[in-house]
């Protein structure tokens, strides 16, 4: 499935990037910015941002279920996201130029 037509990013591209990102020591939270930078891509119109978020977290759960990502890492990632939300750091709306940087 195509996630970003501007940069020609598929869900499979995101899955491969997640495998590499999440197997790094001190793996960052796999936000769309982190994933796109890893793939050396950049969101142009940001219309794909909501779908990219959905795909990233669906793939994260799938990789964990398949045993390709450490369950502890997956739980740690979810906890960090929850903490960010509790602290009031809301996701940037799609189309916001700050998301595209």
Strands, total number? 2
Output the strand order for the largest sheet.
1-2
Rg for CA atoms: 13 Å
Instruction: Assign the structural class, choosing from mainly alpha, mainly beta, alpha/beta, alpha+beta, or little secondary structure.
Output: mainly alpha
Distance between the termini: 24 Å
The pLDDT mean sits at 80
- What low-confidence regions span 5 or more consecutive residues with pLDDT below 50? 91-101
Question: Strand-residue fraction?
Answer: under 5%
Order of helices and strands: EEHHHHH
| Residue share in helix | 55-70%
Largest sheet: 2 strands, antiparallel
Number of helices: 5
Shape: globular
Structural summary, described in words:
The chain is mainly α. Helices cover 55% and strands 5% of the residues. A two-stranded antiparallel ribbon has the order 1-2. A hairpin with a 4-residue loop joins strand 1 (2-4) and strand 2 (9-10). The protein is globular.
Concise overview:
The chain has 101 residues and is mostly helical. It has helices spanning 11-22, 32-38, 49-65, 71-86, 97-100; strands at residues 2-4, 9-10. The radius of gyration is 13 Å and the shape is globular.
List keywords for this structure.
101 residues, mainly alpha, 5% strand
Secondary-structure blueprint of this entry?
Elements: E1 2-4, E2 9-10, H1 11-22, H2 32-38, H3 49-65, H4 71-86, H5 97-100
Antiparallel strand pairs: 1-2
Helix pairs in contact: 1-3
């Amino acid at each position: 499935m195509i996630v970003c037509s501007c940069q020609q990013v598929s869900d499979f591209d995101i899955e491969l990037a997640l495998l590499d990102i999440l197997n790094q020591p001190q793996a960052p939270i796999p936000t769309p910015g982190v994933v796109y930078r890893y793939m050396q891509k950049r969101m142009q119109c940001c219309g794909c941002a909501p779908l990219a978020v959905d795909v990233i977290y669906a793939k994260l759960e799938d990789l964990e279920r398949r045993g390709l990502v450490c369950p502890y890492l997956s739980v740690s990632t979810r906890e960090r996201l929850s903490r960010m939300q509790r602290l009031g750091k809301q996701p940037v709306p799609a189309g916001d130029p700050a998301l595209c940087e």
